[in-house]
Amino acid sequence: MPRVRGRDADMRETLTFCRCFAVGLNGGRAVTVDDVVIPLAVTGKQLKTPFPAKQRPLADSCLYCTNDQPSRMDNILEVDNLEMRLRELESRIYGERRNKSGKPVKCAESLARIQAGLTNTANKRERVKILHKKKEDFLLSQAALLEQISNTQPLLDSTYIRDVPEHATKLQRLSQIHIKEQDQTEAQSLEVKKLFEEYNKMMFLLSKQFTQWDETLRKLEEAKGIRPVE
């Protein structure tokens, strides 16, 4: 919990407030000034403190500082603000887990230790080095492919590509016409097939009729003794 203490009994009278206090002390936290607890408001209203109204903060995110040491107090509170923001970030990333001593686990330190262990393991294993080499080659090949795609970017910005929506509309109309003509072609194909069947049937009947006529004529010629002409 941050503390702001004065060097003499007149500290309360010289205490002023500004608008740069670390955001994040809300919600149950407090600032202690000479053992006088000043709860931070979460509603954006002025704080209820033992000090006069003119010395109260204007909002819930104000900096408690002294007039005689502004730069030093600013630096201290900026560091405190950064530390609180890092803790909040670690709590959101790592969760509310704690170590054996009951203290919150520091995510950055844990990740650094894990990274160091993995690096040491990778340096001691030849297979891991080979895998890293293959990964490097894979990344280089992917980079080459991405470079080729980047070189073809002007083609994507050409007028032919930009006119694709208009051509798509025309193609849709042509597709509808093609479907209609395809239906007509199927109908005509059925009609032609039917005509071929009728033609084949007619030719079969004619062939059968000519065969019967030829047989009748041959019998008549044999009855009259006429030799057939070869």
UniProtKB/TrEMBL annotation:
<feature type="coiled-coil region">
    <location>
        <begin position="72"/>
        <end position="99"/>
    </location>
</feature>
<keyword id="KW-0175">Coiled coil</keyword>
<protein>
    <recommendedName>
        <fullName>Dynactin subunit 3</fullName>
    </recommendedName>
</protein>
<dbReference type="Pfam" id="PF07426">
    <property type="entry name" value="Dynactin_p22"/>
</dbReference>
<dbReference type="GO" id="GO:0005869">
    <property type="term" value="C:dynactin complex"/>
</dbReference>
<dbReference type="GO" id="GO:0061640">
    <property type="term" value="P:cytoskeleton-dependent cytokinesis"/>
</dbReference>
<dbReference type="InterPro" id="IPR009991">
    <property type="entry name" value="DCTN3"/>
</dbReference>
